[in-house]
Amino acid sequence: MKLKQRFAVFSALIAFVLLGTLCYLTLNDIEHGGSKSNKIKEKDYIHPQTVYDPNQVGFQIRKKLDKSDSRSGSTKNSTNKPNQDNALNVAKLEQMYQAQSNRSRPHGFPDEGNFFNIYHKFSRFDPAILPKTEGKFNALFRDYPSSNLVPKEGLATLLKPRKARKGRYRMRVWEEFQHNINRFELYSFNNSRIDHLMQYLRQHPVFEVEEKQGGTQIKLVIDFEDGGQALFKPWKVPREYETLPNHFYFSDIERHNAEIAAFHLDRILDFRRAPPVAGRWFNLTSEVYDLADASLRKTFFRSPANNICFVGHCSYYCETETAVCGKPDMLEASLAAYLPAFKIAPRKTWRHPWRRSYSKHRSAVWEHEPNFCHNTVMTKHPYNSGRRLLDLMDMSVFDFLIGNMDRHHYETFEFFGNFTYPIHMDHGRSFGKHSHDELSILAPLFQCCR
After folding, report:
1. Stated pTM of the model
2. What is the pLDDT of residues 206-236, one digit of tens each?
3. Residues β-bridged to residue 301
4. How many angstroms separate the Cα of 353 from the Cα of each of 39, 64, 85, 86, 424?
């Protein structure tokens, strides 16, 4: 028998079997009248999630049970009141529904929408849509609801964890920090992993060093061996150094220890909006010069005191007279943990309403206009609704405590819209005058609360 003939016989046999099966199922359904498929017995399990209105769950279940009794031909159970067995069944189902709807998340599962949440098996017990006032700042939105929708849990993540070839991928400590960023804070309260991250910044081996583009003073980008990054700000002046009386706030020298102190104060005040910063000693020869690019290497030199120095490229204080020098090649610096990459978690830059003029000859409008907040700021987006104006008041208190007059812009994560916080960063010019309180920093507070 040829191949074509065998194939034809085999196809005919399969068609005959399928046709016989279809005829059998059709005759069986006609014989029983479809009663088995439509009849709902009293002991059948009805999943509570099939009822979508929690206020009418009992009514919906009773209605289904009454229909099943009427279809079975029982006149006794076809009335509005279900029998005793149905009542017990309804009570059990209502109890199960309440238990599942009130079920709490497991330990460690965040209760805010964040960047990198993935679909979780417990998320199906949550409401379909989170209310606008859900979360930490309920009191702030009791009278002034946000005009932006609050991000929901289960949204597409901005960064998916990488998978290992064998077994489960274990995130590095800096990846854990980035994955836990949410719309309320950069890290959670009493998060022990932050201490591990700071230890990582202090001790992890350096792989590469490059100069950060932009800015008024020298900053470096440190690449670690495992792919992590940190922002390097070097030691320039002694800790007891204060801003000179004849220097403007925008020409002051940035202090590495101001970044460290500002982070710890932000953490103490329970803002948790400043990226973690740690201090570290660097060997300028083996950890900076040997790992730097050619452009940065050209700015290194040895001073008359036999110390290793470098200048870099920037707008202020990048001359030989103000070079960064080690003793002889050891230098203290601050390392700030990097936020997620801009391509993955883009940030929006906002001009601060109470920005100073940065001029030697003129002042800003708000400095001589007492009604600036009500007449100008409160009439514009995003300060006319939501939490943004309140967050700026918080930030002004924070800046007042650290003596920071250099808050010209601030950043927020675009993913969270207007329902998020301004990131506390760039505090190098803080703590300039230890014995002076600059009350003008509190302008958002005393102008908007009149």
Report:
1. 0.65
2. 999 999 987 789 999 999 999 999 999 999 9
3. 309
4. 68, 60, 68, 65, 16
Distance of CA 8 to the CA centre of its chain: 63
Which of 399, 406, 426, 437 is catalytic? The answer is: 406
Digit-coded pLDDT (tens) for 18-41: 888 877 777 666 555 544 444 444
Closest CA to 159 of 117, 122, 121: 117
Cβ-based burial of 260 (10 A; exposed 0-12, middle 13-18, buried ≥19): buried
Among residues 368, 360, 364, 429, the alpha carbon closest in space to that of 399 is found at 429
Pick from 317, 333, 319, 326: nearest CA to 253? 317
Catalytic residue flag (residue 406): yes
What residue type is assigned to position 186 of the chain?
L
Is the CB of residue 422 less than 8 Å from the CB of residue 391?
yes
